[in-house]
Design brief:
Length: about 300
């Protein structure tokens, strides 16, 4: 394809790192309920990092050569060069590598927002599903930093080891039939005060059953294919506050602040993104497959 050019108010970024999320694999498949199937020809990828290589009319040339993260919308990131609006640029912090910055920009800001909404308090038990994933791994660390006791739920020994290395007090395999019993036992029979549900489906519904009375059940993902929906009467009966997946729709105005905060935490060494695997651009299909078949650990990135 020809090199892209910057229009008015736009820049061209020479891409060094392209990020991806589980939702983007669903968008590519045309199965995500919140996005229209993409129109071909389609270039996946909505977040890149690199240096600004060209600026369009009306853009301050001070951006030239700067290390930035750039949102390209819902398309265009899996490329050597990508166009972005200057309003969608985020200066990469000094002292933080571009892969780390990409891993923190979307997943980190989401995790920061989820933790803020859930109002984690010191001494509480927090259950994090998909705790070895991009968002989950950061939720484990943020909950620990808030003084909570953390149980990380994941699938398989490799992921459970990673959860423990992140500082979780305990790790449980939610592929085991008695995993919810283990959660109750770890919490002294009361259940978790806060549950972060990023899986949905049967696992999400089972996790709701482990939430302590007076606790908070926060939904943010549907890795199983369906988001957990709790009937209001069930929530009242269980005395659980359900923070539904619709919370994500209100995150937009706060994402830049949350990204700045989580990157400052990382630059100070208080949190770290879990980058489990990287792929060259020409193996983008393999990268998507790793996320979809659940072999990926933490964040998956393309390096250009």
């Amino acid at each position: 394809m020809p090199d892209p050019t910057a229009g008015a108010g736009q820049v061209v970024v020479e891409v060094a790192v392209a990020g991806m999320t589980f939702v983007e694999t669903q968008i590519r498949c045309g199965t995500d309920p919140w996005h229209e199937p993409p129109t071909l020809p389609y270039v996946p990828g909505g977040l890149v990092a690199g240096r600004v290589d060209a600026v369009g009319p009306g853009v301050d040339p001070v951006w030239l050569g700067r290390r930035v993260l750039a949102s390209t919308g819902e398309t265009g990131g899996f490329a050597e060069r990508a166009v972005a609006a200057v309003s969608e640029l985020f200066p990469a912090p000094d002292g933080l590598g571009l892969p780390e910055a990409v891993a923190l920009h979307s997943d980190g800001s989401t995790a920061r927002g989820l933790a803020e909404h859930a109002r984690i308090r010191p001494g509480e038990w927090v259950l994090v599903e998909a705790a070895a994933g991009g968002v989950g791994s950061l939720l484990v660390q943020l909950a620990r930093a808030a003084g909570a006791r953390v149980i990380g739920a994941a699938g398989g020994a490799r992921k459970l080891d990673a959860v423990r290395e992140l500082g979780a007090d305990a790790a449980v395999d939610y592929r085991a039939p008695d995993w919810t019993d283990e959660v109750r036992a770890l919490t002294g029979g009361t259940g978790a005060d806060v549950v972060f549900d990023g899986v949905g489906g049967d696992i999400g519904r089972a996790a709701f059953g482990t939430t302590a009375r007076g606790g908070r059940f926060s939904v943010h993902g549907a890795a199983s294919g369906t988001a957990t929906a709790i009937e209001p009467e069930d929530a009242r009966r269980a005395d659980v506050e359900v923070i539904g997946i619709e919370q994500l729709f209100g995150f937009g105005p706060h994402l830049t602040r949350w990204a700045r905060e989580i990157m400052a935490e990382a630059a100070a060494g208080r949190v770290r993104p879990l980058i489990g695997q990287t792929f060259p651009l020409e193996r983008a299909a393999d990268a998507h497959a790793a996320i979809e078949n659940r072999t990926a650990l933490g964040k998956t990135l393309l390096l250009v």
